[in-house]
Amino acid sequence: MEESVPEFRGFVEKSSAGILHEFENDSKKQKARMSEFLSKQTQLLNTVHSELLRFGAIESLQLEDMMSIMKTCQTRLLTIKERMRKASTKVAKLKARSLKIQEIKQKEALNRELRREALLMLEQEMVVSQ
Question: How far apart are CA 96 and CA 90, in angstroms?
Answer without folding.
Answer: 10
